[in-house]
Predict the structure.
Amino acid sequence: MGRRLQLEWHESESQLKQRYQREKRAERRTRLQALWLLRQGKRVADVAEALGVNYRTVQDWVGWYRRGGLSEVLRRVRGHQARGQPAYLTRLQQRALVARVKLGDFKTVWEVRQWVEARWGIRYSYAGMWELMTRLQLGLKVPRPQAEKASLAAQAQWKKGA
């Protein structure tokens, strides 16, 4: 049966329960619930099974708690601290790019990528430029090709209902 967890607790069982019940964010709530259950004397394996997480995950949370307490466990929630890599383009450059794309100056992501590199000397990969354009909610508008034999007069007449 494994031995019970030996841990120096900074919060009482009732404090952990209250924090768990008040927490709105799911990932933080799961961690608080795990610590509350461990504080009650439950085994790590039982807590992991009850919460549907890996045994090693609960061990990581306990290790973080030992190092920095509850604040350390909650600080390590994804998206809490790091915001990722800063953008290559400044906000002003991004606005200029948005304006050029909306004017219809580009047909492909490669053209956008080449223009940015020529204009500001900032090199993007294809995937990086695609991601930037997705973040900026930019779509390339390309007119549909027309058949060589298409008659604009016949199309205009058809649109009028003739």
Q: What stands out?
A: The first helix runs from residue 13 to 22. The chain has a mean pLDDT of 89.
